[in-house]
Amino acid sequence: MKTVKIKDKEFGINISSEKIQNAIKMVASNIDKDYAGQQPLFIAILNGSFMFAADLFKYLNIECEISFIKVSSYEGTLSTEKVNELIGLNQDIKGRKIILLEDIVDTGITLSAIIKKLKNLEPEDIKVATLLYKPNAFKNQFKIDYCGMKIPNDFIVGYGLDYDGLGRNLPDIYKIIN
Question: 4, 66, 113, 154: which could form a disulfide with 83 (CB 3.0–4.6 Å)?
Fold first, then answer.
């Protein structure tokens, strides 16, 4: 098993870059079908979703736009369950079809807070697309419209996911060993 050490933790490979790309292609295909002839606005949630957003856009065939917001809710390996908006949306979304892009949905607290804020800006609708979803950690009611993979409730790094800011650059996803 291929392993990496980040700070004081060791991680073993969990999801290969090939499997990640196949999941993203599936998500892109489903979005293409659902939004044919439309022009949705994707809002990628930074920092983690930057790789997912970039790769997803390579596979989309519909006309679309993208914007970014930056929020945080993690410290170390644990969610603080408090969302801190760091950089807000700077364009009008009233009447727009919005697709939120998230690298991973675990508790759903971050997305729930973002959805609530965005609904106040009167978009036509809001959908959620995520590369990874942890159903056993999910604590919310909103729907995950596009999901690349369901995974167990393990702490993971790589492909945009980090441990204290490190590990985002890994092309594969690793889970914590110790």
Answer: 113
